[in-house]
């Protein structure tokens, strides 16, 4: 036992010395790691639906998507029909616009904007944002620029798209509007994919189409769509249906969103 006492003393001295050294040592500073970049949400994968072809009807192009024949495009020579004075009485665009809920700083694309009839009327709802007025016909955009200058509207931005691509950056849109135009898209599958990419997660689409279910709507059949057909095409492209804002005199106002 007597021999163990000096040994225990030595052990205690060693422990106390080690503790004192540890307390006086400089703290170890770990290098800062670079911040982890925020995850960018990618659009959900969707299955490519093939086009089919067949004999063209009088108002169609003989190309079919989900069984629907695509209609011929109404070109810039028909601007007067888009700007007709009786359009408010027939279609109630002011009611449609009042039903479209947008933040004041939202960026909304008017796809197939044509003469800008809707673009200019919706621009006051986004005073700190803008309306990207997209068309594939330069003549339509020329008309739109002249009209914007006459009206002194500065938050409507003309934008030339392509038949299969909006030509917009990913995640750049809060919302999109399509008024009686989607049924004429010659490449709807590609355009829906382009729109899915351009919308932010939760971004909405407001789709106006003449009601295909209603024989009393005085529009050629290929220039109308049923709610069921629109849902089939948009939901198959990865969008989620959120509702039909009824009623308008002749049209559906369908709302979809990017998940």
Automatic annotation (TrEMBL):
Residues 108-203 form the Methyltransferase domain. GO terms for molecular function: methyltransferase activity. Its EC number is 2.1.-.-. GO terms for biological process: methylation. This is Class I SAM-dependent methyltransferase. It comes from the Bacteria. The keyword Methyltransferase applies. The lineage of its organism: Bacteria, Pseudomonadati, Verrucomicrobiota, Verrucomicrobiia, Verrucomicrobiales. PANTHER family: 2-METHOXY-6-POLYPRENYL-1,4-BENZOQUINOL METHYLASE, MITOCHONDRIAL (PTHR43591:SF24), METHYLTRANSFERASE (PTHR43591). It is an enzyme of class 2 (transferase).
């Amino acid at each position: 036992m007597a021999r163990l006492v000096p040994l225990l003393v030595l052990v205690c001295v060693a422990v106390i010395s080690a503790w004192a050294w540890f307390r006086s040592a400089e703290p170890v500073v770990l290098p800062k790691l670079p911040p982890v970049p925020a995850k960018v949400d990618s659009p959900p994968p969707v299955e490519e639906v093939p086009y089919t072809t067949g004999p063209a009807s009088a108002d169609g192009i003989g190309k079919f998507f989900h069984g629907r024949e695509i209609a011929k495009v109404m070109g810039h020579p028909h601007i007067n029909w888009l700007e007709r004075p009786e359009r408010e009485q027939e279609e109630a665009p002011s009611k449609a616009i009042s039903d479209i809920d947008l933040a004041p700083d939202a960026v909304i694309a008017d796809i197939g904007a044509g003469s800008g009839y809707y673009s200019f009327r919706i621009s006051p709802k986004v005073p700190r944002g803008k309306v990207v007025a997209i068309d594939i016909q330069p003549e339509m955009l020329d008309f739109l620029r002249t009209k914007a200058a006459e009206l002194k509207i500065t938050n409507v931005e003309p934008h030339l798209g392509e038949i299969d691509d909006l030509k917009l950056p990913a995640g750049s849109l809060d919302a999109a509007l399509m008024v009686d135009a989607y049924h004429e898209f010659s490449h709807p599958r590609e355009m829906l994919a382009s729109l899915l990419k351009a919308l932010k997660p939760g971004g909405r689409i407001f789709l106006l189409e003449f009601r295909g279910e209603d024989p009393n709507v005085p529009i050629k059949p290929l220039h109308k769509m049923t709610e069921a057909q629109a849902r089939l095409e948009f939901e198959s492209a990865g969008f989620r249906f959120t509702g039909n804002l009824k009623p308008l005199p002749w049209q559906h106002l369908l709302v979809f969103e990017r998940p």
